[in-house]
Amino acid sequence: MAKVLIGTSGYYYTDWVGPFYPPGTGKDNFLQFYSEHFPFCELNFSYYQMPLRGKLIEMVQKTPKGFQFAIKAHKSITHERSPSSVERAEEFFHAISPMREENRLSAVLLQFPYSFHYTQENRKYLAEVLPPLKGLPLCIEFRNREWMLERVYKAFQERDITFVQTDTPELDNLPIATSITTSKLGYIRFHGRNKENWWNGDNTSRFDYLYQEKELQLWMCRIEEIAAKTEKLIIAFNNHYKANAISNARQLREMINKHTNLCLPDKENLKDTQNKDE
Q1: How far is CA 228 from the centre of its chain?
Q2: Rounded to two decimals, what is the model's pTM?
């Protein structure tokens, strides 16, 4: 049965001051405070800029020994594909070495856009760009349902790559949620269900959504199924607007604690409890 790590996608949000970070908290103290309340964080700054070794070392030093990270691949690998993408993948591999060396890296997330269709050209691209990343805990998220095929799952199993499960609005050709696993690592990302802003919104309005308990409850059986087939399951809430991700991460953790036998991190090491919000 997998150990379940629940956290959020990102932590560096100024609109979390008040709802989560105490008023007056400086940005330099965000990560340390976050790591006292959650055992895992998905880093997304690395999509916009190639990580720097010194920055990652600093992040490791600011967090407890057992704290885990997932890190998003740079956009030159997933969104701005070019003849130099393989070289950029090699650069990314070496850039994140501090987290690998300290055993703090649970996942490397390659999130491909909706426009990345299931084509021969794109399959060839994956065959070229993934080898430089070999040895990393690779996890791939497709935003296009075309990739939800048995042949894709089998290829991922053979290469020990995680097929990321997502919760998104019910819109044409977006992925649907399943309990399929393709490696010993499970990965679920909750993006919210904001249909109105999904296609036309920005990175804030698109993820402006607060899950209701009944919506999370529908995931419970699926979470248990995935946990039963993996050694570690990481769950990231990406509905970051106004700290909705914090609220839902705490809510899901409480639901799991009450209703399942899943293995969560030792609550004594975290300041959050089931009955207390900061």
Answers
A1: 19
A2: 0.94
